[in-house]
Design a protein that fits this description.
Number of strands of chain B: 0
Helix content of chain A: over 70%
Mean pLDDT of chain A: 86
Mean pLDDT of chain B: 74
Order of helices and strands of chain B: HHH
Helix content of chain B: over 70%
Structural class of chain A: mainly alpha
Oligomer: heterodimer
Radius of gyration of chain A: 18 Å
Shape of chain A: elongated
Radius of gyration of chain B: 22 Å
Strand content of chain B: under 5%
Shape of chain B: elongated
Strand content of chain A: under 5%
Distance between the termini of chain A: 23 Å
Amino acid sequence: MQAHRALVLLVLGFLAACAGSAVQRTDKAIRVALEATNAARDSFVAWDQRHQEWLVDRAETREAAEADLTAYRERRQAVVQAFTAAYASIAAAASLVPLVNKGSRSQTDLLVAALEVARAVEEVKRAIDQIRGSP
Amino acid sequence: MKSEIQKAIEFILRAIDEIGKIAGNAQVTNAYAAIKAVREIYKAVRDVTARRVKPEEAQMALDVLLSRIGQADAKADAKVDEKFGKR
């Protein structure tokens, strides 16, 4: 349900972002990307907590529980890195907008940054799908 | 305090509800309510996307992720102690 809400919001956001100049549209797309990434973050952290509790529940010894948690947290690093890259790309793109408006950076620079945001957000989704599909 | 995104989602759900009512009851008043709700959705989303992203927002969002993950780890570790006893 939460994923559906995020999807509806993303679609509506992109529709709303369709109006205005190329810079305005990119600016709005960056906002939508941030909100979508935040929605993915909230959904992931809720699952992360449930998953760790499940690992403890199924363990028969302390050593097994600790080993499972350690292994899971190492795999989770890929998700954290994907989120870090996504937020960094959003910050970089956002910092370009005023520079493009002032004329000190080109619209092409902003477009390249926006494409990097899209790629990074897609990588977040892939990383989450991968960890949720593994034991 | 509700975020603008949460408000937008509430508008969406309300519009879906209103549209659902029209399917069972084609009164003009309901149709008007549905159109009004859809218009509010558009406005809410437009208002959200109109706010320029500041780079610090992305940094804060990442901080929230790291903080919540830290909290989840602490809870899981506490649950290990609770189940098997403290070392």
